[in-house]
Amino acid sequence: VQLQASGGGLVQAGGSLRRSCAASGFTLDDGAIAWFRQAPGKEREGVSCIYSSANGGTNYADSVKGRFTISSDCAKNIVYLQMNSLKPEDTAVYYCNAVRAGVDYWGQGTLVTVSS
Q1: For tag attachment on the chain, is the N or C end more exposed, with fewer CB atoms within 10 Å?
Q2: Is residue 36 within 8 Å of 44, Cβ to Cβ?
């Protein structure tokens, strides 16, 4: 399983970014894909998760509800995280994560910096 994340960068507060996570060796039929983030000096936290393509259920951390949207393109095995109304406290390294049969797979982290 390989997860290739892209779409990080620098944005002003109130702006938007879209992250993508391309999965190989894994599909949403296998399990779930999630986004985590880790801010400087803080523990890694879950941001959003999307479940199997049959279920299509999603989940969000309270801190991002109404601002972030997770979606998937099952044909391309890509999961997107649309981040709107970004705040400086959203600044963190973001990681893509896949879980299958209780095993975690991680993509490389990419930095998102939101300036005030």
Answers
A1: C
A2: yes
